[in-house]
Amino acid sequence: MSEAEAEYFSKDFDWDDLRNDVEADPSLRHHLLPFPPSASTSPPQDVSDAWGNFHARHHTGKFFKERRYLLKEFPELVSCGKKNPRVLEVGCGNGSTILPILRGNEDVIVYACDCSSEALEYAKEMLDSLNQASIGRRFHPFLCDFSLDGFPMWLACGPCRETSLRKHCCSSEAEEKTETSLRGFDLSKDMSCLGGVDFITLIFTLSAIPFEMMPKALAECCCVLKPGGLLLFRDYGLYDMTMLRFESGKRVGFREYMRSDGTRSYFFSLGIVRDLFLHAGFIELELEYCCIKSLNRRSGKSMRRVWVHGKFQKPK
């Protein structure tokens, strides 16, 4: 079985068995304790700087491998039956999610945002290095911290966010003008509205923002989706190996941790994910733990990885 197939929807172990092992281990007790509000730290002021520094250190393919498995996990990205479907990749990083989507569907148009300008530059450099005009024309990066500022109005303007979008507020000619103006990083403030996107990919992005900011961020995602549009979600699951490696001093909230470089990670239970998305206005289509065993080649130890897979739809 290939690596991509192994990572897709694998059930190498039962999550409840992992939970029982973790909760019975005294050395992991600090992960289970309530987190007192008085101990909470305020959100870092320079999140974009922290992630910019992170991507500067880890921008090569050796660290972020191309996520080809996502096309099997979310086949809608390849064969959705739409003409020129629009995908918004939130938190694109170095482009490890973007490239498989662009390669897998020759008609798809990808808008990719990140709070780090460094990450966007690396993503653009990676796609430019392919020297494939057909891919470059369909890739539109822009700087945006959706958790703080929301998405720009050219994705979906006020009227589009408030109506069914059956009649877009912009004409096809205006959309074409917008497409053309998006090909650089200096985006015009008066661009015409796209009328929303068909898909949003939120891949290991939501966990990187403070928990208290997640409801607003997801509501913003719902606003820029077309009615019936899908949000495709994959992120860290509760009791994933990465979580269990954090020391008690790294906790900044319940199931929320901060690394020494200032970047964050939250580890989701299915119940928390369900509550967040339903509260934001989504309909749950799929939601489950993805549990796989990964072998550490250096130590020879088997590691239990846990991710959350979800598909959510904006009401039609």
Automatic annotation (TrEMBL):
What's the Enzyme Commission number for this chain?
2.1.1.-
Q: Which residues form a coiled coil?
A: none
Superkingdom field: Eukaryota
Q: Keyword set for this entry?
A: Methyltransferase, Transferase
Q: Name one GO biological process term.
A: methylation
**One Pfam family of this protein, by short name?**
Methyltransf_23
GO molecular function per UniProt: RNA methyltransferase activity; S-adenosylmethionine-dependent methyltransferase activity
**CDD domains the record matches:** AdoMet_MTases
Q: Which family does it belong to?
A: Belongs to the methyltransferase superfamily. METL family.
Q: Function of this protein?
A: S-adenosyl-L-methionine-dependent methyltransferase.
Q: What is this protein called?
A: tRNA N(3)-methylcytidine methyltransferase
Record the organism.
Rhodamnia argentea
